[in-house]
Write a structure and sequence with these properties.
Helices cover 31% and strands 28% of the residues. It contains eight helices and 14 strands. It has an eight-stranded mixed sheet with strand order 2-3-4-1-5-10-6-9.
């Protein structure tokens, strides 16, 4: 089973859910989840996807009563940034350091790299088809929850104007559906370095047969250790083949220690 999760406290989340119900054949089921309606449809791969609604913010969903048969969890969410730039994004949740916004300290969710790549491709295609003035991007691994199931966020941002944009919400809905419909896996890598939104990694995923799982940004490398790096590798659905380093996006003071950690965990790496 695949769950798509919308939040009643999140305007963008409800907008994305509305597109799924209106445009993508999700039908109301007889049961409820936490007192809220459930919508369901069969995916092209024959798997059932359910759209559920929660009453808390997605980042605070550490203790959701999830079904044991769950294969993939997709949160539909707003994205907020000080810049307010229009953005369609995807990432795995979890905390590389302290739990400042939900989840558990130094615990990341399991990253569904191939599903995230499919979402990224679908959102980019929709952005081009609808001439949306939005950036399409990976985000780094950040915020809660920290879950033991493959988990991803598809997000619409970054201000109230974008959260209410039905066309942009439709693009994110298509990304969520592409992730839920995945039938193939891609060679998978770990991304390290660069900013919160990594344009280099995004371009690489959009133009090559490669998928990124966890992405560790420049600002988190200083506190990165062998244990955390191993966790990011091990908590990825696919086998991580190597690390891709945004070399110019890594502070000089951190480069030597990073390479030492990579060698200790015996992970190959490529500088770009």
């Amino acid at each position: 089973m695949i769950l798509l999760v919308a939040s009643n406290k999140d305007k963008a989340s409800l907008n994305i859910a509305e597109q799924l119900i209106t445009n993508h054949h999700f039908r109301k089921a007889s049961r409820k989840f936490l007192g809220n309606p459930v919508y369901s449809r069969e995916m092209p791969n024959g798997e059932t996807s359910e759209l559920i609604f929660i009453n808390q913010e997605p980042v605070n969903s550490q203790h959701l009563p999830l079904p044991k048969s769950l294969r993939l969890l997709i949160f539909l969410s707003r994205h907020k940034s000080e810049s307010g730039r229009p953005t369609l994004s995807v990432h795995t949740p979890g905390n590389l350091g302290e739990a400042s916004l939900g989840g558990l300290p130094r615990k990341v969710s399991i990253s569904p790299a191939s599903a995230m790549k499919e979402a990224l491709i679908a959102m980019k295609k929709a952005q081009e088809e609808m001439n949306l003035e939005y950036e399409v991007s990976y985000e780094c691994t950040h915020h809660g929850p920290s879950l033991n199931v493959p988990t991803m966020f598809v997000e619409l941002g970054s201000s109230p104007n974008q959260w209410a944009d039905s066309d942009a919400a439709e693009a994110v809905a298509r990304g969520a559906l592409a992730a839920a419909s995945i039938e193939k896996t891609y060679p998978t890598v770990l991304g390290i370095g660069g900013p919160h939104y990594n344009a280099k990694f995004t371009k690489k995923a959009l133009t090559r047969e490669i998928a990124f799982g966890h992405i560790i940004p420049k600002y988190a490398i200083e506190s990165l250790d062998e244990r955390m790096l191993k966790q990011c590798v091990e908590r990825t659905v696919e086998s991580v083949q190597k690390a891709i380093l945004d070399w110019k996006g890594i502070r000089g003071a951190d480069k030597k220690s990073l390479l030492e950690i990579l060698r200790k965990v015996n992970l190959e790496f490529e500088k770009i």
